Each structure stands twice: as structure tokens, then as C-alpha cells.
């Protein structure tokens, strides 16, 4: 147990801290734009769904690649790891370029998906035109730092994202409110602050990979001459995960779009809930990522009993920390609501949504480490795709859409329906975990 706790503090907590810092960037936008008003908050938050979906796609790519990397790390096959790194970064940058083109040249069309209010659409479009330039470099940095986790090098990501957060918060304050003689740019100021913080991330990552990291290098020749067998393994494992994360991200965006069509008060309340959900789940998500590395490495070392032990302990730890975080969130819900410049209707929605979120997060504290951590570590990625995609799109989103636009339920009723996916998937995730089908070596 002592050795396990040492590993948790050395790997899981730095990953959780990275997630917390990344959430902190979004939180800074929400808090500061919330001081400007509901329209600014809705515009920035809804436009941020583009970055959210892209980040999940990158996470999907790196999660699939990390299944291989973690198991090859257990075998100490550095050459194979370097080849996987190069392939993953190429795919990530290509994805970033696609999102840049979409956000830069079609921002109004994108915003029409999320809102029917012209002021929100125009504010979100102005945000996207600026922040779009950060997408390719953000994709590169995120993919590289996520891959470093799979070889137990999580601290570099924590340092990079911490520096980025500090710059983002400072520049947010200066550019949103017009401090230190700068013009008050509102939503566009939040976008510019985000772009500048991504540039800092890129500079720090380049310095680290060129000057510091001597163990696993990015060899540019591998970027142009791919190992066919490794590419096949990468695609077999990564495509289901990319589809899984993309469907999940698109599902969260669909939730935001459905609530956004019900008015700016519902959209503003949901914007806050989205950030709080990330804060409540930040430790569980960190544990899930660490579980994938630890279990994958143990499988690569042929230590299957150790893999089972790590999996069980990580799931239990996830439940415990999420329960504490959810309890804290419930206790502070009135403080959170009163801290933002929201109208009475939006505050009423927010208080209700936070209560529902407490039950939702407890279910997610089990399914997240099982699907994202345990099953993926053993290459069981297709099951996660079917389970999450089905419970979300054929379950909660379909019911939420029907509730909003066919049965015309209240905002609160629609929100409950949109939160049902975790309750649907929970028993199936537990069954798959207990079956031990996921305990398999996928290396060559």
C-alpha cells in the first residue's frame, strides 16, 4: 500500500493538478466574463465548446496511443515509443489545423448551432476569430504533454500549464476590463488572453523537448516514415477512443446547444455548471489517466495481479475524492451563485443544476476510471465507444431534445434528462470491469 500511495502522489496528483489548472483557465473566463454580464458569459462559454471538442479529440488520440506507450514503457522499448509519439503529434496538429479553419472562416455558422440570440452569436464569433489561431499550437502541446504522462513524466505538464494559467488570469483581467491603460475588450479580450497563454505553452514545450528531454525524443524522420505495424495498432486502439471522446464532446456541446436554445439564463447557468463539474471531477479524471498508465505498464510487465490491484484501488479512490468534492460543492452552492452577476432566473436554474450535478458526479466517479482508465489500459476501447456513445446520444441527448422541443418541458426538466447518461452507463461499466476481459497485452 505504501508503494501504491507513492505512485499515486507521484503520478495521479500531478495529472489531476494539470486538469485543475486547465479548468482554472476556463474558470477565469467564466468568473470574469460573468462580471461583465450574462451575454458575455454565454458568448465566451458557448464559443469555448469548439476548443472543448478539439481537446477531447486530442485526448482520444493520446489515450489510444498511451495504451501502446504505457505497455511498451513496461517493456522499455524506447524506439517504439518514439515512433508512437511522432505519429500522434502529426495527427494532433492536423486536427488543430482543421479546427482553426472552421473557427476562423465559419464562426457565425458555428455559433448558430449553440444559440439563437444575435448578441450571443456575434460575441461568440468575435471570440472564435481570435482564439482560432491558438488551435494548432494548442493541439501540439496538449498531445505532447498528455503523451509524456504515459511514460510517467507528468510534472512537466503541470509546470507548463501552471505558467499558462498565471498569464491567462493576468491578461484576462487586463484585456477584459481594460486595466493598465489597455482597452476594455470584453469577450475578445478573453480570446486574446487565451491565445497569448497558448503561445507561452508552445514556447515552454519546445524548449523542453529540444533541450531537456533526452530519454524519449521526437525524431522527425519517424514523422515521415511510419512503422506500418505500429500504425495499424495505433489506429485500431485510437479510432474507437477518438470517436468515443468526439461523441462525448459533441454530446456535451449538444447539451449546451439544447439549453442555449432555451434562453440566455439557461445557457449562463449551464456555463457555470460545466466549469464546476470539471472542478468536482478533476481528481477523478486525474486518477483515471494515472490508472491507464499504471495498469497498462503492469500489463506490459506481465504483472496481471498487480494490474487488477491498481485498478481496484484507483476506482475506490476516485469514488472517495469525488464524494468529498461533491459534498463541498453542495455546501458552497449559494456562495457560488451569489458570486456571479446573474439574473434571478439564472440563479434559480444554477442552484437546481448543482444539486443534480452532485448525484451525476458520483456515478461518473465510477464509470470514468473504469472506461477511461481500466478498460483502455488493456485495449478494450470498442466497448467504451459503444457504451458511452449509446448512453449519451441514444439516451440522454435524445430524451433531452424531445423534452425541450417536443414536450416543451421546463429548463429544469430538460436538464435532468440531459444528465441521465451516467446513470444509464454505470451498471454496464461495472459489469465489464468485473469480467476482466480488459486484462490483455496489446504490444508486439
Overview of the structural elements:
- The protein has helices spanning 2-36, 38-47, 49-75, 78-105, 107-114, 118-131, 135-149, 155-177, 187-212, 220-224, 228-260, 264-300, 304-331, 333-338, 344-377, 381-405, 411-418, 421-435.
- It has 444 residues and is an all-alpha fold.
- Helix 12 (264-300) runs parallel beside helix 15.
- The model has no long low-confidence stretch (mean pLDDT 85).
Strand and helix layout:
Blueprint: H1 2-36, H2 38-47, H3 49-75, H4 78-105, H5 107-114, H6 118-131, H7 135-149, H8 155-177, H9 187-212, H10 220-224, H11 228-260, H12 264-300, H13 304-331, H14 333-338, H15 344-377, H16 381-405, H17 411-418, H18 421-435
Give a concise summary:
The chain is mainly α.
Question: What letter string, H or E per element, gives the SSE order?
Answer: HHHHHHHHHHHHHHHHHH
Taking pLDDT < 50 over at least 5 consecutive residues as the criterion, the unreliable ranges are none
Summing up helix and strand content along with how strands pair, one would put the structural category as mainly alpha
Strand composition percent: under 5%
The best one-word shape is: globular
Q: Give the proportion of residues in helices.
A: over 70%
Task: Round the mean pLDDT to the nearest integer and report it.
Answer: 85
Number of helices: 18
- Strand tally, please? 0
Radius of gyration: 21 Å
Terminal Cα span: 31 Å
Largest sheet: none
Oligomer: single chain
